[in-house]
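Email to the structure team, subject: Cell division ATP-binding protein FtsE model.

Hi all, the expression group asked for a predicted structure before they design truncation constructs. Nothing fancy, just the tokens so they can compare against earlier work. One-line instruction: predict Cell division ATP-binding protein FtsE, return tokens.
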Amino acid sequence: MIILENVTKEYTSGTPALNGIDLRIEKGEFVFVVGNSGSGKSTLIKLLLKELDATSGKIYVNKKYLNKITRKRLPSLRRDIGVVFQDFRLLPDRNVYDNIAFAMKVVEAPSRIIRGRVLAMLSMVGLLDKYKSFPNELSGGEQQRVAIARALVNEPSILLCDEPTGNLDPENSWEIMKILDEINKRGTTVLVVTHNMEIVQAMKKRTITMNNGKIISDVEKGGYFYED
Ligand SMILES: Nc1ncnc2c1ncn2[C@@H]1O[C@H](COP(=O)(O)OP(=O)(O)OP(=O)(O)O)[C@@H](O)[C@H]1O
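Reply from the structure team: attached below.
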């Protein structure tokens, strides 16, 4: 569960990047966040990961009060949130298997558990046969599927995706969205920042529209108000 209460983020004094945001996302929801460039979408994601602190207001993620969370408890917050970016961010010198396993090694999972989980993730994203490939041997869509597998391997309850289809053609974009929908149906809360309005319209999910640091609409089933 994600709760923001009157959250403002100012990078420098002047126009805030987020301006008095109130938002509640329940466990198990699928939510799109749309809005023109500079409206505050990436800032929202950074606040949820506590990469940034809010200037004012309160943020809760899975009952953790982020304003007061100690440095020691940050890893446990971040383990519970998977993240996927537009540019995949895979390790270029590791193969697919190791890219996914790496996320488990850093949390010191036992190796017998790592193997089973990595293979299960690869199967979920349909890439079992590519486990030995290196990122530069994969298409963009395949690289993003690996990134999704890596984001989920530690079984986070929330998956944040910042423009996950920004570098992909329509066919691969749909493939990624189908996977995200399936992940959500299995119980993970999924939040997707996107500019792909065709997908937003077709998928009929809750859609939050941001403009100038404010939420200007929050609609069930794919309605939105958007001007680029
Ligand atoms: N590190 C920073 N320092 C100062 N201002 C910043 C910083 N990061 C973002 N901003 C500003 O905050 C506002 C919101 O930016 P943000 O990146 O959250 O927008 P966005 O909706 O994700 O945009 P896009 O769709 O282009 O990715 C913008 O006006 C941006 O210029």
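Strands lie at 2-9, 18-25, 30-35, 56-61, 64-65, 81-85, 158-162, 189-193, 206-211, 214-219. Residues 11-12, 17, 35, 37-43 surround adenosine-5'-triphosphate (CB under 6 Å). Ping us if the truncation boundaries need rechecking.
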